[in-house]
Structures are given as C-alpha cells and as structure tokens.
C-alpha cells in the first residue's frame, strides 16, 4: 500500500486509514484493523469506522458517517508494517538541559546540579542560545513521537516565554514552567530569583505571556514550577499555591529522588515529617500536581499523595543514570496514584519516551529481582502493555488531558504517530535493501511476517527508535515527517 503524502496545502478534513493500536486499559492494548479515523478541521476525531474488512470499506463507512465529500478529504493510508499509535506524553522534561543529554559522568543529583545543570540553565538567558536549544529540543522530541511535553524551562522569563512561543509555532502540546528558585542560601548566586517577591512576580509574568499567545491554553499552558523544596522558601511555595488556587493551574516539582536530597529537605524543614508533607503543608499537593521521581517515598507519603490525587512522573532513565534508585510503579498504582512517564532530560539521557517505557520495564525487573516470593516477583514486573499505557493514557490522566488525548476515540483530538517497522522479504533484505518502502531507513526492527501484532509491538518497544516514527500529528496538524 502506498502512503499518500499530505499536500502542502492541507484540505479541510483528514481520514487516516489502516491499523490503530491504543491502550484499552492498563493491562490491554486494543488492535483495530481495517479502520478509518475521520479528523475534522479543528483536529478532533469526528468518526471512527472499525473492523470494516478492507480499507476501502472503512473509508466509505467513515465518509458516510461524516457526510464529507471525498474531494474535501486528505487520505493518509498505512503502508506495509505500519500502524497508528497515540502520541507519546512526556510528563517531565527539562527543555533547558537538552544540550547535556548523556553528559553526567558518575555524578548524583546534588553534585550533578552544581556541576552540569545550573551553569547550562543559567546560560540560556542568552536568547539566541535559548532559541537554538529550545528549537532543537522541541523538534527532537516531536521526532520521537512526543505530542505532549511538560517542560521545565529556566528561571529566566524571556527565555521561558520563548519556549512557549516555539511549542506553539512548532505545534507541540506543552506545559511550560518558569522555574522558581528563591531560596538564596541554597541556590547559586549566579542562578536564582532575586527575592521571593521577584520570584512570584516572574511566575505571573510567564503565565500572562502564555495567556496572551494561547488564551484558552488549547495547546500551550503555563505550569507552576517550584524547582524542588530545597530551592524554594516557605513563602515562595505559599505564594505559588495562592496563584494555583486563583488560576486553577497545574503544578510540577520533584520529590524524593535521591537520599542526599531527602536529608537536605529534612534539614531545611525540621519537623515537617516528610518530603511530601513539606509540599502538602504549603498547599502544593493538588489533583493538578505532577511529582517527578518519587523513588524513595514512604508508605505514609504515598497514602498522602494518593489522598490529594496528585500524580507521579516515573523517570527511569534518569533514576538509573544519576543512580537515584528504582521507583515502584505497581506499588504506586496499588496506592491509587496515577503515574506517567518522564524522560527527565538531561538527568535522563534520552529524548525518547519509547526509551523511558523500555527502561520502565527493566527497572521493574530489577525491583523484581529483590523479591523472594515467586508470585510477587512475577507480578511486580511491568508488561509491554503497561508501559505503553504509562506513555500514553497514563500521562494524559496525570496532566488532566484524559478526555482530550491518549487514545483514538470520537471527540478526542488527533495526537498520533504513524509507526513503520522494517519488513524482511524472502531474500532476507528489506525493501530497498536496508531501507523501507518509502526509501527511509526503517531502523532496528525487522518484522518477518509471522509475528502476531502483540509480538510486533514488543519488538517495537524493545528495539524501536525515531526511525520508526514516520509521521506525527498534534491536534490534527502534521508536525513531523521523516520524508
Ligand atoms: O532530575 C532532576 N533534575 C533537575 O533539574 C532537578 N532539580 C532539582 N531536582 C532535580 N532533579
Ligand atoms: Zn527533573
């Protein structure tokens, strides 16, 4: 089958034809074959025709349902070995740290911040440099299928606003956070807010900018971003909580990533009882709060976080790179906490949520190896289906986007990726020898033709990369194409 190019002047409507795969539940993927998804001019899914026997029948059915004339529609058809998958959701990523991916040596969190991270972030007050870094970051993450990213920018307001502008123009759904660091004795003198008052003022400035460029926060939303408890004062956190309540905004921060960090929090907030209590007593544990890492949470902290309906971003690449530890996803699920995935660049070494999903399975296996009881050990391992849920619907729920994105349903927006795997022919070569049918390198995944769909997905998870991400759409707009 031939994949139709989108015309440079897109038509009003689109119909995607082929196989659609998405999470039905945490445990189960749904495979919808011979299907058509109709997308309206606003990027919303208007109709779906499922299991029609052939793509022609699916196309006819969806045109009948919508009443659209064929001439008004751009058709996008899966090629051999291709399928549509929901766009990935990165619930925790530092756009400002993108140039440092892979550069962490043997450091752990607190020395890594001092040595690698604060100097880079502070240098992005140079707007030309910020433009270069942020453009590369947004383009790179889009190319890996990340349709929604929850970004930390820096303390600098103009650079943060620039990141929001770029997300809007490049078409990535994003939460953009100006980083609050108002605790003078902890934050480096060259990289911090001048005062608590200034910190809150700057947070509001960034919110006002985003409101101006995207008044309904349709694509880009501000997110309140106290860096982590050690870098913020009590007054600063209380002030952010007041803004949160007034504006009903999301919040992101870090929690319990590293033992030295936890000790620092306990020293700075004596009598608080726990790291989670520090945020809670300053009004920052809300249903719209995403807490990154949560590696060393206690039972009581998990119970508190669950009772506040706050969410957790699991960042396995980062937790391994900075030797922070292993977050217990299934334990958090059992506590009733919603969990998504974060790349946490550049604590994490990769811009890819597929890589984060892969590492989530491996981290769960490292946890399993510490369990004596065989049944419990098996249960603790995360499955392919579960980590792909974390990467899509789980992330959407963490960000309050569960009704908008994360799967293929009528009424949701089309945030999706077209995945192509390499099809091995009878001579052992792939079409075009080393290239797929489109003349583009199909990457590491060789499909021999006898694999079930479940096996193809497992091969994609464990060996896939951005070469398999052929097209990416956000709100129906084509935002990345490998051609
Ligand atoms: O992984 C992390 N990355 C950061 O930039 C950071 N700041 C505080 N705590 C952090 N953890
Ligand atoms: Zn982080």
TrEMBL record:
One BP annotation, GO: guanine catabolic process
InterPro entries: Amidohydro-rel, Metal-dep_hydrolase_composite, Metal_Hydrolase, Metallo-dep_hydrolases
Entry EC number(s): 3.5.4.3
GO cellular component term, pick one: cytosol
Reactions mediated catalytically: guanine + H2O + H(+) = xanthine + NH4(+)
MF term (GO), any: guanine deaminase activity
Domain of life: Eukaryota
Names of required cofactors: Zn(2+)
Enzyme class: hydrolase
Assigned keywords, A-Z: Hydrolase, Metal-binding, Zinc
Record carries keyword Amino-acid biosynthesis: no
Residues covered by the Amidohydrolase-related domain: 85-479
Pathway terms, separated by semicolons: Purine metabolism; guanine degradation; xanthine from guanine: step 1/1
Its job: Catalyzes the hydrolytic deamination of guanine, producing xanthine and ammonia.
Family as reported in the entry's similarity comment: Belongs to the metallo-dependent hydrolases superfamily. ATZ/TRZ family.
Protein name in the entry: Probable guanine deaminase
């Amino acid at each position: 089958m031939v994949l139709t190019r989108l015309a440079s002047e897109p038509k009003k409507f689109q119909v995607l034809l082929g196989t659609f795969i998405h999470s039905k539940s945490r445990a189960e993927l749904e495979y919808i074959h011979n299907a058509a998804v109709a997308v309206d001019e606003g990027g919303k899914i208007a109709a779906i025709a499922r299991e029609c026997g052939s793509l022609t029948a699916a196309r006819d059915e969806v045109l009948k349902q919508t009443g659209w004339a064929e001439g008004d529609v751009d058709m996008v058809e899966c090629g051999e070995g291709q399928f549509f998958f929901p766009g990935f959701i990165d619930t925790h990523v530092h756009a400002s740290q993108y140039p440092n991916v892979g550069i962490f040596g043997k450091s752990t969190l607190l020395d890594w911040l001092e040595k690698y991270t604060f100097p880079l972030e502070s240098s992005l007050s140079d707007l030309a440099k910020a433009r270069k870094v942020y453009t590369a970051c947004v383009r790179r993450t889009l190319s890996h299928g990340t349709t929604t990213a929850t970004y930390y920018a820096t303390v600098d307001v103009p650079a943060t606003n620039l990141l929001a502008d770029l997300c809007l123009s490049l078409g990535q759904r994003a939460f953009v956070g100006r980083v609050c660091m108002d605790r003078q004795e902890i934050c480096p003198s060259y990289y911090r807010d001048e005062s608590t008052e200034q910190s809150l003022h700057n947070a509001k400035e960034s919110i006002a900018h985003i409101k101006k460029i995207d008044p309904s926060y349709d694509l880009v939303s501000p997110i309140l971003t106290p860096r982590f408890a050690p870098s913020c004062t009590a007054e600063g956190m209380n002030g952010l909580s007041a803004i949160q309540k007034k504006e009903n905004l999301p919040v992101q921060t870090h929690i319990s990533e590293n033992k030295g960090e936890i000790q620092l929090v306990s020293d700075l907030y004596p009598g608080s009882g726990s790291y989670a209590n520090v945020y809670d007593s300053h009004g920052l544990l809300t249903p719209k709060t995403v807490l990154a890492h949560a590696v060393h949470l206690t039972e009581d902290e998990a119970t508190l976080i669950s009772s506040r309906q706050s969410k957790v971003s699991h960042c396995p690449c980062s937790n391994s790179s900075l030797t922070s530890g292993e977050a217990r996803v299934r334990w958090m699920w059992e506590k009733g906490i919603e969990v998504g995935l974060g790349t946490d660049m550049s604590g994490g070494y990769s811009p890819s949520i597929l890589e984060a999903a892969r590492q989530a399975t491996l981290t769960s296996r490292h946890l399993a190896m510490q369990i004596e009881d065989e049944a419990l050990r098996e249960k603790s391992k995360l499955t392919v289906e579960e980590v792909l849920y974390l990467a899509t619907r789980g992330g959407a729920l963490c960000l309050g986007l569960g009704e908008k994105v994360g799967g293929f349903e009528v009424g949701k927006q089309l945030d999706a990726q077209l995945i192509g795997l390499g099809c091995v022919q009878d001579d052992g070569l792939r079409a075009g020898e080393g290239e797929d049918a489109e003349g583009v390198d199909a990457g590491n995944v060789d499909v021999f033709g006898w694999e079930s769909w479940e096996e193809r997905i497992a091969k994609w998870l464990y060996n896939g990369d951005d070469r398999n991400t052929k097209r990416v759409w956000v709100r129906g707009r084509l935002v990345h194409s490998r051609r």
